[in-house]
Structure formats: C-alpha cells, structure tokens
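Hi Q.,

Before the meeting this afternoon, I wanted you to have the pyridoxal-5'-phosphate prediction in hand. No need to reply - just skim if you have a minute. The sequence and ligand are here:
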Amino acid sequence: METVYFDNNATTKVAEEVLEEMKPLFCELYGNPSSMHTFGGQIARKIRRAREQVAGLLASDPTEIVFTSGGTESDNAAIKGTLAAVPDKRKVITTRVEHPAVLTVCRDLENHGYTVVELTVDKQGRLDWRQLEELLDDDTALVTIMYANNETGVVFPIDKIAELVTGRGVIFHTDAVQAVGKIPLNLSKSNIDLLSLSGHKLHGPKGVGVLYVRKGTRISPFMLGGHQEAGRRAGTENVPGIVGLGKACELAAENLEEENSRVKYLRDKLENAILEKCPDSRLNGDKDNRLPNTSNISFEYIEGEAILLMLDKFGICASSGSACASGSLEPSHVLRAMGVPFTAAHGSIRFSLSRYNTEEEVDYTIEKMPPIINRLRELSPFVAK
Ligand code: PLP
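Predicted structure with the ligand bound:
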C-alpha cells in the first residue's frame, strides 16, 4: 500500500479543486489587486470572492475577514493587536493546553508586565470554564481559548464561554485552526470577537490564514504599510493562497456532513479496534466532545517515537503529538496538563483522518498495529518478562 496519511491535524493534502483555482494566478492572472488597471482589478475581484467564501463557511460578514499568513500569525495578531488597543488593561486569561502559537505569546507577555492566567483541564481534557466567572475583572484585556485541541481533538464549549466573557466587557479570541472545516461554526449566532483559522488544515494551501474580527472589535493593525486588508494587515496579498483558501472553505462547507459521518465512522473503527487489540492502551481526551477526525491513544511502557518509526516502515503516517512539539523528547504539555501518567504520555500517538482516507487504509492500519505494539513491548526495559 502507498502512503497512508493519518496526520491531517499537522497538515492536509491540497484539494485538486483548490489547486485548479490557484493555477492561473501565477503566470496568467498575476496582476496586483491594488493596481488601477483592469488586469489588476480582476484579481481584486478574486480576493473579494474568496472573502465571501470564507465568510460563508463561518456565517459571518466578508468585511470581518482579514487574510493573514496562517494560524500562527492570526493568533499573534489577535493577542498583540488586542493588547495594543486596550493598553490600560494588563491581564490575559488562556488555558494550559493551547497550541504554542498562543501559549508562547501569552507566556512572553509575563516578561512585559502582564498577568497571565492559564486555566486547567481535567483528566479527559475538559475545561472547567466556570473558573472564569471569578477570574474576569476590570483589568482583564483578553481571554483566548482554543476551539478544539490539536492533540486530543477535545472541543471546548466556546459559544458559552464567549457569551460569558463578552458579557463582562472582555474581548474573546478563539484559535479555531483545528475546528474550522471539521465541525459547523456559526459566528452570526456567537459572541466570539476574534477567531483564527489556517488554510493548510482544511485542504487549502500553506502560508495563508484568516483572522476573523467581529465588527466593532477594538484591535490595532498588525502590519503597517499599505492599506491592504482595510489597513489592518499591510502587504501585497498572497493572491493564489487567498483564492485557494476561499475554495477550500467552500468545499469544507459542502463536506461538513461527510466529515461528521464517514470520517467519524472511520476514526471510530480505527480507534475501537486498536483499543481492543492492543493491551494497556487508553484513549486520551473526552470521547464525546471531540473532533470527528482525531484519536489520541497512549500505549503504556513504550515510546511514541518508536511506534511512529515502525508505522513509517509500513507507509503509515501518524504523529506523537503536536507537529510543532515533535522533535523534542518532552511529553506533550497537553497530556501533562490532563494528568496522563508519564509512562503513558511518552507512548502516545495521534491519528488524524480526513475525507481522503479510505476504509481499506483503516483496515490495513488495524492489521499492522498489534504486532508493532507487541514487538516494542518485548524490547521495552519497563515490561516484566
Ligand atoms: N493553532 C493550532 C490549534 C494548530 O493546530 C496550529 C498548527 O498546528 C496552529 C495554530 C498554527 O497554524 P499555522 O501552521 O497555520 O501557523
């Protein structure tokens, strides 16, 4: 079997339809959307269309969509842009399980005189968001809480949280990089002020993303220069990327139903079989409130990296945690925050599926996993022989 790609939370394949939309924008329609001539004007129209496609997926207004270079920029812009707009407030609230694109920025704020509070999660990765009631005060500038966790897939009740936070006059940002395109979002019915998404997580291209900014939200421009993106994010637009992201959002809207039925079925089949056939394995994360494509499983007494290498020999791609955190031997900060024992956290594997996966790939992986786990346990110094 060729490559079996179960690492879609790290990045996804660009949809063929997306690539087709992007192709003419390199050598045929290469004008600058800010130019006065007709040649440039048609490119400006393409960007307008992409803005509508993104807004359509989020049920928001096109004027609320700001194109960026990806999830990391959107997260940085949301946090730093908010704090610059409300300079008199010095407190930020976030969670211990955020992606580094949020967590590292927040932790750095502590070096600049800010108080940063990190909410905790329980053993299943669920957030006790009612802690916020007491923590929100007049000094709080921003609350930033992810929509869905990239490692476990656990989904937080963001609409309820946004209602509580904005009801207290505090700006609310959510990193929805893993949620957009996998579960339905309706910003017209939500109090979310700022939301980050990234093209390459939903079968769009890399290097393009969006910061959704609700009308009336106070935020400073995050790139100064020309007046692109209504003066919020200067710089000649990444036109092929933006057009590709627009198409990816349109396709995501069409495929949401499949994501939540067929993809979920495949994920559940894979997960249930592995948990049943591999002793001393356990699921990490709230079984019920999860992205339909993600499964994070711990295997006691063995290293996640060793499992990945053996899977790789069979052409199966998975991950031992966040793509950005892999390469370090520290167990994942998300699993540690959940209190997963050290021996299990070290042996954790994330499978993340997409609409391009097949049942045949799932069956193939189910066949390969038990012998891999048994073999590694035989070699493990932690297993009594
Ligand atoms: N936020 C989350 C939850 C992510 O999973 C990622 C990527 O893994 C990012 C932010 C960063 O997005 P990007 O790779 O587009 O910068």
